[in-house]
UniProtKB/TrEMBL annotation:
One of its GO terms (biological process) is intracellular sterol transport. This is MD-2-related lipid-recognition domain-containing protein. InterPro entries: Ig_E-set, ML_dom, ML_PG-PI_TP, NPC2-like. Keywords: Signal. SUPFAM superfamilies: E set domains.
Length: 156
């Protein structure tokens, strides 16, 4: 292999590594794998990822529904190393536009975690309800790190 080809491949590899964090998908699982939820989740985007304590974070959940949804609530439970530490309940129409028409939609939750939030691995469980029935229920992990005064993030 000639030197120019090797340099090109190394440059391409370095460039792809720069974009790797933005290509990482957040793994999720349904709370009940046997359930036939009205809304099917297709992906989760957390920004920034990892979450920096004391800074704004956005959780975007992409989903689709085969049935129109007029409203409901989102119940969000947070676990730290498997221990339930927090619960929030929000009107569904504050997290997405209502009514939700048949097709694709995005649920967006913004949060600023307090500066004293311990860094580490967390699990978020989100259960959406409409008319008393569960629309969907998922859980996924995310990390919280210490923020620094600059633009870099320190992983702990």
């Amino acid at each position: 292999m000639d030197t120019a080809a090797l340099h090109f491949k190394l440059a391409l590899l370095a460039l792809s590594l720069l974009f790797l964090p933005s290509l990482q998908a957040t793994y999720f699982q349904y709370c009940d794998t046997e359930a036939n939820y009205v809304a099917k989740v297709s992906g989760i985007d957390i920004s920034p990822n990892p979450v920096v304590r004391g800074k704004p974070a956005t959780f975007n959940i992409s989903a689709s529904t085969g049935k129109a949804i007029s409203g409901g609530k989102a119940v969000i439970d947070v676990y730290y190393f498997g221990v339930h530490i927090h619960q929030e309940i929000h009107p569904l129409c504050e997290e997405t536009s209502c009514p939700i028409a048949v097709g694709n939609f995005v649920l967006s939750h913004n949060q600023v975690l307090p500066g004293f939030t311990p860094p580490g691995s967390y699990t978020l469980r989100m259960n959406l309800f409409g008319d008393g029935d569960s629309i969907t229920c998922i859980s996924f992990g995310f990390k919280i790190v210490l923020g620094t005064s600059g633009s870099s993030v320190s992983n702990i």
